[in-house]
Amino acid sequence: MEQRIERIKKQLHSQSYKLTPQREATVRVLLEHEEDHLSAENVYMLVKEKSPEIGLATVYRTLELLSELKVVDKINFGDGVSRYDLRQEGAAHFHHHLVCIECGSVDEIQEDLLEDVEKVVEKEWNFYIKDHRLTFHGICYRCRDKKEE
Amino acid sequence: MEQRIERIKKQLHSQSYKLTPQREATVRVLLEHEEDHLSAENVYMLVKEKSPEIGLATVYRTLELLSELKVVDKINFGDGVSRYDLRQEGAAHFHHHLVCIECGSVDEIQEDLLEDVEKVVEKEWNFYIKDHRLTFHGICYRCRDKKEE
DNA sequence: GTGTCAAACGAGAATTATTATAAAATTATT
DNA sequence: AATAATTTTATAATAATTCTCGTTTGACAC
Q1: Test the A interface: residue of B83, B134, B142, B145 with most A CBs within 10 Å
Q2: Which chain A residue has the Cα nearest residue B81?
Q3: B126 and A141: CB-CB below 8 Å?
Q4: Closest residue of A to B132, CA-based?
Q5: Cβ distance A72 to A84 under 8 Å?
Q6: A125 touching B, CB under 8 A?
Q7: Total number of domains constituting chain B
Q8: Which band of pLDDT confidence, cut at 50, 70 and 90, is reported for residue A134?
Q9: What is the number of helices (H) and of strands (E) in chain B?
Q10: What is the mean pLDDT of chain A?
């Protein structure tokens, strides 16, 4: 945890940004909820518990900044809210998501899976891929189990 | 064109919805701009040209309805606006997109490409896939050509 | 055709997420 | 400690979308 914060601090400094207490508090919340897909509002409320003086705009700016630095990914599942997801350190590519249309849960797939597809796209469409977003909508294992009962 | 409208009309009727003049005008705009990825505002302005009395809320309501019926897909490229895309008739799956980070163009890939990936996901994650969204971000062939000049 | 009733519409208000603004506070540096 | 630049706070502004509600329309029975 401390090491990751330290590395993020260095990353900020290398572009002459500061790791202010507000930014650190925000990063800590993201690290503590790595599994989740928090909205800006979610992050705001969680940060407020530890640092009640923080403003919503600061959280937005911090998330925007972290997004630019590729520390987090800003994603959108079509529910009108942006969600922010910590990138795995050293991950070349963005991970995928499984959104359950029954219970609304969002699971992550860290494996790449798209290598072959990307080769085809690069070749057939002459498109130089920098990043990708892949989301599956369907029914998760939990809801499937429930139905069998 | 007329046949597709006729089929959409039947689809609406089968769920006891009406194809009102406003709805028909909206569908016509979508058919005429099948290549594009129009926002609700875009659609509204185009429909207004032919049917100036139409209201913005009606366009939103119609797009929402068509989205429920799977006639259009509501997509979100992360620019804060929802876009609406006609589904290919009979297409089992939603098509993919290539978003160029230089010129902002959006191209479509109609081929499935994900069959193998989906098999893996269904099996390994025990997830029953109903639909998917796949978007690549990168540099399109037009911008690549430009750079070589 | 006319009456009826639910569905759909239009106009504008309301809501929600996000961004901009400006004054005050903080930070690193001298 | 003073300075200058960055960052924060609080609030206002904006933009996309949805809601409300009084009015209109369309489909069907008579």
Answers
A1: B134
A2: A80
A3: yes
A4: A136
A5: yes
A6: yes
A7: 2
A8: very high
A9: 6, 6
A10: 92
Cβ separation of B141 and A120 shorter than 8 Å? no
Choose the weakest-confidence range: A17-21, B52-56, B75-79: B75-79
Task: Write the CA distances from A133 to A5, A26, A124, A144, B111, integer angstroms.
Answer: 26, 24, 19, 25, 17
E strand map for chain A:
38-39, 72-76, 82-86, 96-100, 106-109, 128-139
Same domain, B62 and B124: no
B67 touches chain A (CB under 8 A): no
Query: In this structure, are A30 and A44 located in the same domain?
Result: yes
Q: What is the pLDDT of residue A32?
A: 95
Q: Please indicate, yes or no, whether residues A73 and A134 belong to a single structural domain of this protein.
A: no
> Nearest nucleotide (C1') to the CA of residue A82?
C17
The tens digit of pLDDT for each residue in A84-112 reads 999 887 777 788 999 998 888 899 999 99
CA distance B121 to A90: 23
